[in-house]
Amino acid sequence: MSLLSVSGLGIEFGGVRAVHDVSFSADPGEIVSVIGPNGAGKTTLFNMISGVYLPGSGSITLAGEDVTGMSPHRLAERGLSRTFQNLQIFQQMTVLENVIAGHHLHERGSVFADMLHLPSSRRRSKAAEVGAMALLERLGLARAALQEAGSLSYGTLKRLEIARALALKPKVLLLDEPAAGCNAVETEEIDRLIAEVAAEGVAVLLVEHDMKLVMRISSHIVVLDHGEKIAEGDPAAVSRDPRVVEAYLGAHAKEAAHADG
Amino acid sequence: MRLSTKSATLLVLALLIVATPFFFPSAYYYRVGALVFVNGIAVTGLVILTGYAGQISLGHAGFAGIGAYASALGPTHLSLPPSLSVLLGAALSALIAFLVGRPILRLKGYYLAVATLGFGILVSMVLANESGITGGPDGVQVAELGLRDLLASLGLKLKAPVFWYAFSGVVLLVGAWLALNLYDSPTGRALRALHGSEVAAKTVGVDVPRVTLQAFVISAVYASVAGSLLALQNRFVTPDIAGYMYSIELVTMAVFGGAGSVFGAIFGAGILTLLPQALTFLAEYEQLMLGLIMVLVMIFMREGLVPSALRLIRGRGA
């Protein structure tokens, strides 16, 4: 049985089918990429899996448990973590505090202990801070630890979101365009990081437009078009699939041709 | 050595509380000072709700009213000592905040503002209309707290205004300490996270309805204690204490001084309590000046007086 499996998932917005009858699954250590043209329903799919949207139909199973329609914080308790396409950073907090907040499930406790600054509260905070610092080191953000997050560059904030999502020690990690807006060096770092995280046994779900990145690291690719799954398979098979080429990769090729002309 | 924000805030507050009386021209200023501290206590609660968690309440005077009337009615109706009545008021405010907060904290922004406004008006109407219990719009006498007599019997004789200045100052310091502890704690981070991005807070596991309710209840207890202290030092209370004008004054103080910072909000409470007194020489232009100052601060120092000033100083320093 798979760690995460999605079956017949669909949602409508005002009668428009944004996602329809999508099924796939992910195992520990796998990198499953969801690709497709803009508006294909990739982010909507992520929002359903992470509990932000309530699916109209279908079901989601996480580690054998039906988690369809479960709120995001309960999914977080079950080991599902995500990043956002349009950044969702805690702007007024420092970089370090953002990642400590990512440890919320490990550091939360009695509000009375927190207000009275009791040793138990300090211990929880300290442990979360140590964990957060280690993650910042790992993502090359340690030097910015005490800066206000709102003052950082876009590419840095992308990495900060990944650090925050990893703070949860997730079993399933959803990354929504982690390399968007990043330069080549940053993209390569994110590439390496995703592979590392997967190697540790995390099931990674990836939405990404950078096809080179997707083809290089995915174990498995799901292709969406107009909200429906039109193909699925390993990178080599998907890139040869005529429907995929027509719906997506072909369009990219055309864009490239236009750019050249 | 660098002081943490917490130690610096508490140190500056304590110094101000101890040192300002040396500049008082008359004993009347102890009363003004105590009023500043009482407002500061209520506003510190709003820092937790508004500054940390990003939720607005235009009804917190309702909790001040509950605290004030608890300290007035506890001794007469339940034969409780006034000190226990204060605690009873705080517990009652917490319970009511818990029951009211559950449904209305699901609302956001101005919907929440209107709902809390309605709650405050409701409390003040109950206090004004249930005259059999509360004494109605004319108000009700409040018993002596008794702590001053206790201190006198121990050899520390204080005049009433001096005692209330000192006592309110100590309560304010304790309230500020608790709020500053919360800021840098797991719960405080969860509140500030949901202020920054509610959806991201949820995805890191923050139970948003639960922590916003906690913030609402805590801030209600602050308002309740402030209301009790005000009633006890005036020895008299009317339903005006729960009126919406006082709710709005409290929010204005917090935002004016800087809702995100404990010191800022207390500073705002100080300025807006003192300014009307300082502007009395302008006679009929007093309200006009007060309004103008508030508008200008909000236009040019949107984060509030203290955070904007600190940013300016740090910006220069770097």
From TrEMBL, chain A:
PANTHER family: AMINO ACID ABC TRANSPORTER ATP-BINDING PROTEIN, CONSERVED COMPONENT OF ABC TRANSPORTER FOR NATURAL AMINO ACIDS-RELATED
Transmembrane regions listed in the UniProt entry: none
Organism: Consotaella salsifontis
Keywords (A to Z) from UniProt: ATP-binding, Nucleotide-binding, Transport
Protein name (Swiss-Prot/TrEMBL): Amino acid/amide ABC transporter ATP-binding protein 1, HAAT family
Keyword flag ATP-binding: yes
Pfam families found in the cross-reference section: ABC_tran (PF00005), BCA_ABC_TP_C (PF12399)
Top-level taxon of origin: Bacteria
Record Gene3D superfamilies: P-loop containing nucleotide triphosphate hydrolases
Domain ABC transporter, residue spans: 1-251
GO molecular function (one): ATP binding
InterPro entries listed in its UniProt record: AAA+_ATPase, ABC_AA/LPS_Transport, ABC_transporter-like_ATP-bd, BCA_ABC_TP_C, P-loop_NTPase
PROSITE patterns named among the record's database cross-references: ABC_TRANSPORTER_2
Biological process, per Gene Ontology: D-alanine transmembrane transport; L-alanine transport; L-isoleucine import across plasma membrane; L-valine import across plasma membrane
Key word Cytoplasm present: no
GO cellular component: plasma membrane
From TrEMBL, chain B:
Transmembrane portions of the chain: 29-49, 80-100, 109-128, 162-183, 250-275, 287-306
Pfam family, one: BPD_transp_2
UniProt superkingdom: Bacteria
Compartments where located: Cell membrane
GO CC, any one term: plasma membrane
GO MF terms held by the record: branched-chain amino acid transmembrane transporter activity
Keyword list, A-Z: Cell membrane, Membrane, Transmembrane, Transmembrane helix
Major localisation: membrane
Membrane-related topology note: Multi-pass membrane protein
Protein name according to UniProt: Amino acid/amide ABC transporter membrane protein 2, HAAT family
Originating organism: Consotaella salsifontis
